[in-house]
């Protein structure tokens, strides 16, 4: 009779240890997944914080450039972040008055920290008057600029 009671206690003890080890395994896997997600989010946040730029034109005196028979407005973009970012037609989006416009970039490639690049937009795409420009990088970082032509 005494052995039956001890056996049931041992069975309950083994069951409790198995349940506890299963719970610990689930919690450690969940913690591992959370740490992976936090590492990925911190990488994106670090990139966003270290990437920054500014449109540095005079808002009432937008320079122009002629290329062939076309006349372009020239907008200067300065990389004020600590990281380089891609500076190409495929990695930038330029909106003027809420509409995406066609543009050219110079230099085409990468804009290093402290460098200034040019964005050329046809005057025919912009028109004369007051406008609002927004430039968005590939990672969502943006800058807005109000100007008059």
Describe this structure in words.
By secondary structure, the chain is of the alpha+beta class. It has 2 helices and 11 strands. Strands 1, 2, 3, 7 and 9 form a 5-stranded antiparallel β-sheet that branches. A 4-stranded antiparallel β-sheet has the order 6-5-10-11, with no helix packed on it. It has a two-stranded antiparallel sheet with strand order 4-8. Strand 5 (93-96) and strand 6 (99-100) form a beta hairpin. The longest helix has 49 residues, at 2-50. The N and C termini lie far apart (100 Å). The mean pLDDT is 89.
How many extended strands?
A: 11
Distance linking N and C termini:
100 Å
Indicate the low-confidence ranges by residue numbers: none
Q: Which word captures the global form?
A: rod-shaped
| Helix-strand string | HEEEEEEEEEHEE
The tally of helices reads 2
Radius of gyration, CA atoms, in whole angstroms: 29 Å
Q: Give me the oligomer status.
A: single chain
Classification by helices and strands = alpha+beta
Q: Helical proportion?
A: 25-40%
Strand content: 35-45%
Question: What composes the largest sheet?
Answer: 5 strands, antiparallel
Instruction: Give the rounded overall mean pLDDT.
Output: 89
